Amino acid sequence: MRELTYVARRSVEWREVPDPVVGADRQAVVAPVAATPCDVDSAILAGHGPVPPPFAIGHECVARVVDVGDAVTHVSPGDLVVVPWAISCGDCDRCRSGLPTHCTSVPHMAMFGAPIGGAWGGLFSDLVRIPWADAMLVPLPAGLDPVAMASASDNWPLAWRLVAPHLQARPGARVLVIARGSIGLYVCDIARALGASDVLYVDPDPAHRAIAETYGARTAEAIEPVHHGFDLAVESTGRVDQLTVALRSLVPEGFCESAGNHFRPGELPLLEMYLTGVTMRIARDNARAHLPDALDLAASGTVTPERVVSDVFDWEQLPEALPERHLKPVFIRDT
Questions:
Q1: How many other CB atoms sit within 10 Å of the CB of residue 116?
Q2: What is the pLDDT of residues 101-120, one digit of tens each?
Q3: Cβ neighbours of 203 (radius 10 Å)
Q4: Does domain 2-154+305-332 have CATH number 3.40.50.970?
Q5: Nearest CA among 240, 206, 202, 205 for reference residue 224
Q6: H or E element at residue 39
Q7: Looking at the chain, which residues constitute the CATH 3.40.50.720 domain(s)?
Q8: What is the pLDDT of residues 14-35, one digit of tens each?
Q9: Complete edge-to-edge strand list for the sheet that includes strand 2-8
Q10: 155-282 placed in CATH 3.40.50.720
Q11: Where is the Alcohol dehydrogenase-like N-terminal domain (predicted)?
């Protein structure tokens, strides 16, 4: 089979590797049918990744199950499933406590799409082996479009986690979103659907702002801190100066969620944070734990994640089209 391999900045290529097979009774093999780069993949392709090439890339897809081990009971060949980006067993203490991204059965940060915590392959591959199929794979609810939900491996459930629990705790909260990619737009969609009283989306890209406006958000190219302006701030730029704007815009006891990939160090306004009593979380996403709730919201018909899909390409176009700059391209094929 072919495995799409990141080889250099803005450069990927197909490489032939042995077909994965079910090697244990809890494993499965899947074939991606709709795959998309997440915001981390975009950083990797731009040359800002945490590990040097070459390696198999890709960690967001909806796939069709090809084969399963004898002990797999939750999915069957032919099923459409979401493949979470992080490797997890489902049985260890951390998995059972809702922290599958920190599974103790595998090395720290084990994932698809980058050789961190082992080499697990990438989801831009013709076939992928899933080590714990019942624990990891989540059936795609009937009626959901695989293209619209290609990001359900990571960015969609992450966006749900960034805003949904906060709106449950603070109905009608005011939400600030400072973003550069798909995560912030998904947050706008979810925040609107769950009753945020005000959403301000900040992004220098006018095309991104136009999408946010269809979700009912106010938009701006850039802002100065809005003193006591928002109950919740979501930052997904990877820039510490923008994270600082988010933190300085919170009400007392407000909450800041940082989903940016901060590869560069920087200083935060710690004294102001202390005086305001804000809370900040900057963390990897436990996507598998949030997927059922996030998919339920997607299936409710109150959200429209398909608006974020910028382009739809054929699977064979991956080597040429993936390195190009697109907001959220989806690569599809029949299996």
A1: 16
A2: 999 999 999 999 999 999 99
A3: 23
A4: no
A5: 202
A6: helix 39-45
A7: 155-282
A8: 999 999 999 999 999 999 999 9
A9: 11-16, 2-8, 55-56
A10: yes
A11: 26-139
